[in-house]
Amino acid sequence: MEVLQLLISGISQGCVYGLIALGFVLIYKATEMVNFAQGDMMMLGAFIAYTFINILGFPFIWGLLATIAAMAVVGVLIERVILRPMIGEPPFAVLMITIGLGFILRAVAGAIWGNDPKSITSPLAGGVVRFGNVAVGYENIAIIVGTILLCLALYLFFRFTRLGVAMQAASQNQLAAYYCGIPVKRVFSIIWALSAAIAATAGVLVAPITLIDPLMGFVGIKAFAAAIVGGFGSLQGAMAGGLLIGIVEQFAGLYLPTGFSDTSAYVILLLMLFVRPEGIFATMQKKKV
Amino acid sequence: MRFLFKTNYRQDVRLFKHNGQRFWYSLLLAGVLLAPLLMDEFYLGELALVYIYAIAGIGLMLLVGYTGLVSLGHAAFLAIGAYAHTWFLAHGWPFPLALLKASLITALVGAIVGLPAMRMTGIYLAIATLAFAVIVEQVIVHWESVTGGFRGMPVPQAQFLGLDLSGSMAFYFLCLFVLLVCLLLALNILRSPTGRAMTAVRDSEISAQSMGIHLARTKSISFAISAGFTGLAGGLLAHKMGYLAPDAFTILISIQLLLMVVVGGLGSLHGVIYGAIFIGLLPQGIALMRDYLPPAVSQIPGLEPGIFGLIMVLFLIYEPLGIYGRWLKIRQFFELFPLYRKSTHKRQKSYLRTERMR
After folding, report:
1. Which DSSP helix (H) or strand (E) runs through B239?
2. Which residues in chain A have Cβ-Cβ distances shorter than 8 Å to B123?
3. Cβ B132–A266 below 8 Å, yes or no?
4. What domains are there in chain B, each with its CATH number?
5. Structural domain of residue A16, as residue ranges?
6. What is the pLDDT of residue B170?
7. Using one digit for the tens of pLDDT, what is the confidence trace for B279-318?
8. Does the CB of B213 have a partner CB in chain A at under 8 Å?
9. Most buried by CB count within 10 Å: which residue of A46, B87, B157, B178?
């Protein structure tokens, strides 16, 4: 039973990693940029949700929707102000600029909401479902279900809509996509909005189980590891990597000496990079001359 | 404007290209040698810290600026250098040997970390080094018999041949000496075949490979050299801190080091020095600024990293060549006076084609 309990909490934790990793992958897939501030965008989303729900008194579901909308605007703003001038710059510069962005977001959140941990009042709080001896909190179920729905929607979006296909085209060759009549810059703005919205969703889902504070974005680093383990650039890979890391972390916390739980994500990452650097779901190929 | 007529191949690899440089660098050297006479102890200590940053920066610059490999884990090398140096000192090794051994050990670890670098580029490498740094931090916390764990460990006084090196004046000269040696080493590495190979790898891996450069070996060597310099800086930093604790070497330090090479100017050793001065003096600047700001602003937690981030973003957008690049532009403006054209330094944009297929 213990194993099953661990497995389920591992899965819900993994879903959180997976959701953040999805944001990474989306931006990478479409713009070939790496957004190191994804975790901090999640943090910002959680704080905005806190503002809407706890301070302004929105009902939970409307608060969630308002947060998603607000974060989409924030995403577009970030893209327009900071990332737009960086189109055509080396990837390293973009990586650095998003790291800087993460620091700025953290300072801004600290300035507005302060450093004390906050929590969002959620209608799901406290509820528990029992399967035999295994107790699962409503929050964990919400995370898992929310993640599945989001993944499905994203898959359909990339597979069947014009915009989704345009995004894939823009990611494969910016110039060629532009020649084909795809408004590459606008596509980039939209993808940032989408990614910020996903980050906001992740923030709201995770807020009931971990408190909100400006440093919660550091989860993003583990999520980043998840994205790479899964094979950067593949949506199902991001989820698989997130789940793997979430589950291993839970088991390492119980069965291995202290310290392994915190580092297990990175150990998996390093092992993966040694053994199979292209990740579980490989989308990388050797660059041709 | 100065025109250099080259009549000899040796001229290309000279350390000083012309007498003007010789003059200005001698003046600078005289300046830093006389600084202890003019400054009080506090600023001398800050200047020594700047030198330590510069040593670590040389290491990172060789890796990021000259080999084109990004590392987010240099704080780990700093930590390894610091702990190794302290451990050797505590076990009775003489100061120079302890420092040297610490540097060598860090270089060895760097070479091992560099191994996966053969297969990775860009972000993959960055995140792998980040993972490495996190793991090193945990190892330091849990390997209590050597590192003292959370309790940390005190750093013994630096002594050599009966000379006490821990006084602010002596420590200043020690750091200056190590920095000068490192600069000379780095300059010589850069004009040797190894250094040329590193630059070639940075500019294009494929063309470097087709000219017979062993990519894996070059990258690994670059990592080892970079880690070695950073370990040296770590050893000196240990004395500056006086007491080692694992939370002194977080990812923030790695990013601060990266900020240093970016702000200074990637791809030049001048940039390292400018960056080190910038990073070394920025906390002082922020501390001074706090007095003038309303308390609501100056009490913001995380203000300092926020300002670091803001500066990094602004530099990357408006002056990707860093302080040194800006200085070159200003100098060129005056040299060419009426004829300077802004578009000379226009950045070439390269539109990305994915490295992923499908």
Report:
1. helix B215-241
2. 34, 91, 95, 232
3. yes
4. 24-342 (1.10.3470)
5. 2-214
6. 82
7. 888 888 877 777 777 766 666 666 777 888 888 889 888 8
8. no
9. A46
